[in-house]
């Protein structure tokens, strides 16, 4: 009888974890941006965006904390650049859930027209996701909230 309880516990744990992550996804949102440049629901850009989100989700399950990729379109305007970043202290399962939930929320229209926007970022307490129709790789991000480090000179300390 006890072995059945343990078996059911292991079956229910992933579902409880996903429910907790879903509830925490909106709570941890620090900032987001959705450009006013919109596409149409069945455009080539939207198809490429869904492919991009699939790539991001599958690479989150590959135990990556950061991943960026490009889905090229026939026309340059249909190309989508995207990335996710989970902070270093985020457990692997939580990073996987964050990427899955964020992509699902964006595509579902939970954030208005963000799903149709050509330039989007979401900054959470422990996670960031971004996509755009312009390459932003190796470009400083001056628009979103970012965590900064303070470098202190400890050489002049009194003992």
Question: Keyphrases for this structure?
Answer:
19% strand, 3 helices, alpha+beta, 159 residues, GNK2_sf, Killer Toxin P4, Chain A, five-stranded antiparallel sheet, signal, 5 strands
Describe the structure.
- This protein is of the alpha+beta class and 159 residues long.
- The protein has a domain at 30-132: Gnk2 domain, C-X8-C-X2-C motif (Killer Toxin P4, Chain A, 2-Layer Sandwich), CATH 3.30.430.
- 38% of the residues lie in helices and 19% in strands.
- The protein contains three helices and five strands.
- The protein has helices spanning 2-27, 44-60, 92-108; strands at 29-34, 66-71, 80-86, 119-124, 127-132.
- Strands 1-4-5-3-2 form a five-stranded antiparallel beta sheet.
- A hairpin with a 2-residue loop joins strand 4 and strand 5 (127-132).
- The longest helix is centred in the N-terminal third of the chain and has 26 residues, at 2-27.
- The protein is globular, with a radius of gyration of 19 Å.
- The chain starts with a helix and ends in a 27-residue tail after the last strand.
- Residues 7-24 and 146-154 have low confidence and may be disordered.
